[in-house]
Amino acid sequence: MAEAHDGFGYEEYRMWLSIPIFGGIVTPLMSLFAIVMGHQRFDRGATVIDYFQDVNAVVQTALLEDIGAGDLTARLVPADTLATATVIARETAVLCGSRWFEATYRCIDPSIKINWHHTDRDVLAPEQMVCTITGNARTIVTGERTALNFLQTLSGTATLTAQYVARLKDSNTRLLDTRKTIPGLRRAQKYAVHCGGGFNHRAGLYDGVLIKENHIAAAGSVTAAIIRMQQTGSAVPIEVEVERVAQIEEAIAAGADMLLLDNFSFDAMRQAVAVTNGRVQLEASGGFGFDDLAAVAATGVDFVSVGALTKHLRATDYSMRIINR
Q: What is the CATH number of the domain that holds 117?
C-alpha cells in the first residue's frame, strides 16, 4: 500500500526531490511512416549528447512551478486512497518522453508504479493505451499535468520530425535539428528529434563551432574568422555560414570543414554542390517546410537543418483517466 500523505507541503516536496530517478530502456525506432532508420547523433567530433543528464533537474523545476507550496485541490481526495489510471493517445503519434514522465511521479512518490504498454519511438494509433499508473490517488492527480506536459511536448517533437524525415526517405540528405528549442528542454527535444529519426546538430555553443554572419562581420572576413578560430586551439571541426557561392572557395581555402548554405536558392545549392565536389559537407538552412524538402534533397546537399522541428511543434493529444480506486 502506498504511504498516505496529508496534502503536499514544500518541505515534503523537497525531500521527494532528493530521491534518485530511474528510467526505462529505449527500444529501436518504429517510424511513423514505416521507415526503419537506426540513427545516432550526427557527430562531427564533438561530444555526444547525453540526453538524460538533466532529467531530474528539469522535472524538479517543472514540479516546483506547478505545485509550489502544495496541491490544494488534491486534498479533497482521502490521503490513503489508492487508484489506477491510464494514459491514452488521442491521435497518431511517435511516443517520446517516458523518462521525464516517470521522473515526475518518482519525484512526488517513489512508490508509484508505471506499467508501459509502449516504449519511446513506438508509433501510437488513436485510442491506444500508453501506460498504466498505480498508487496513491493524490499523487496521480498532482503529477498528471506536469507528466503529460513532458509527454505531449516531446511526442509532438518526435512526431513532427518523423513527418519531415519521411519527405527525405528516398535521398541521401539527412535532417538536422537546431538550437531553436524550448528553454530548459534542449536535451529533451534533441532526444525527441532522435526518436523521430532525425539527427542532432550541436547541443550548444560549447560542443560545436559554427561561424555565422555576425562572427564574420566582427572578425572582418570569412578568412579572418576561421584563422582566429583555429588559433584558439579547439579540436572541434569548424562549420562556416556562407551567404553566396563566391564565399565557398574562401571558406574552404581558410580551413572550413563544413559549410552552412544560408538561404540559398535551389540553383545556388546545386552550384555549391558542384563547386565543393565533396571536399566539405554541406548543410542547407533557410526556413524550409514540408513541400521544400524533396527539392532541397535533389540538389545533393548532405544535410538540411529545420528549426521548426523544435519550435513549431504541435503537442500530441494525450488523456489520463482514473479507471479504478
A: 3.90.1170.20
Domain extent for 71: 10-166+313-324
Residues taking part in catalysis: 145, 180, 212, 241, 262
Report CA-CA distances (Å) from 201 to 2, 46, 190, 228.
43, 10, 9, 23
Q: Tell whether 78 is covered by a domain.
A: yes
3-state secondary structure at position 195: helix
- Give the Cα separation of 257 and 286 in Å (integer): 20
Whether 119 and 35 have beta carbons less than 8 Å apart is answered as no
How far is Cα 35 from Cα 27, in angstroms, rounded to an integer?
15
Considering the domain boundaries, does residue 246 fall inside one? yes
Please state whether beta strands 238-242 and 209-211 pair in parallel, antiparallel, or not at all (unpaired).
parallel
Query: Could you tell me the pLDDT band of residue 324, with boundaries at 50, 70 and 90?
Result: confident
Q: Is the pLDDT of residue 90 over 90?
A: yes
Nearest to 243 by CA among 280, 203, 214, 279: 214
The answer to whether position 4 is within a domain reads: no
Domain CATH code at residue 223: 3.20.20.70
CA pair distance 317, 164, nearest whole angstrom:
20
CB 230 within 8 A of CB 255: yes
SS3 of 138-173: the string is: HHHHHHHHHHHHHHHHHHHHHHHHHHHHHHCCCCCC
pLDDT tens sequence across 271-287:
999 999 999 999 999 98
Q: Residue 226: enclosing H or E segment and its boundaries?
A: helix 222-231
3 state DSSP class of 8: coil
